[in-house]
């Protein structure tokens, strides 16, 4: 009975880790595709220019692939080093996620202020040579969220040193519409619009986070159970 349960546990771990590995391949593939085809779409941050959607997907996909491979091969062969490596990596990621959440809620106000300040610095690079990625990113955000500037449309006045905004701030897009009457511009702050969108989808985000944490905890339990069984078998035959 115990042997049957352990076999089912091992097969289950192999199946789920195979799915993780395939998922990691998919995420990595999307990241590479974005990097190649949408390489001019970068981050909004001036201090973290490498923090783009493509780079994040490539990093996350690579990590998932490595962990999935360790878990899958380790479970199939009941290889103790691979199972232990899988357990340690998964535990470290889970602890880092918990630490990130604690720090985020503890310093939420400071993070808000820093993010707004950093985004405003990024505005100064809008439309400049070598920053087409940041320029496109701001244009897409302002068009999709129907907003203008970080905290106010007047943020752009300091960039242009004039009463002017990018054309992506216009209610109806047309060339040089950002030079026209302010009544034809979006005035809602982009920071608050994006923050509001996240709050509207907070339930879905929490469900995703809880499912992720539960999957990680199950992975830790399953891998340690198989690891302990492998140790007992090796000890018995030693």
UniProtKB/TrEMBL annotation:
GO cellular component, one term: plasma membrane
Keyword Signal: no
Signal peptide positions (record): none
Keyword field: Disulfide bond, Glycoprotein, Membrane, Transmembrane, Transmembrane helix
Pfam families xref list: Tetraspanin
TM stretches of this protein: 12-36, 56-76, 83-107, 203-228
Primary site of residence: membrane
Membrane topology: Multi-pass membrane protein
Subcellular location: Membrane
Disulfide bonds, paired cysteine numbers: 148-169
Protein family per UniProt: Belongs to the tetraspanin (TM4SF) family.
Name of the protein: Tetraspanin
Organism listed in the record: Culter alburnus (Topmouth culter)
Lineage: Eukaryota, Metazoa, Chordata, Craniata, Vertebrata
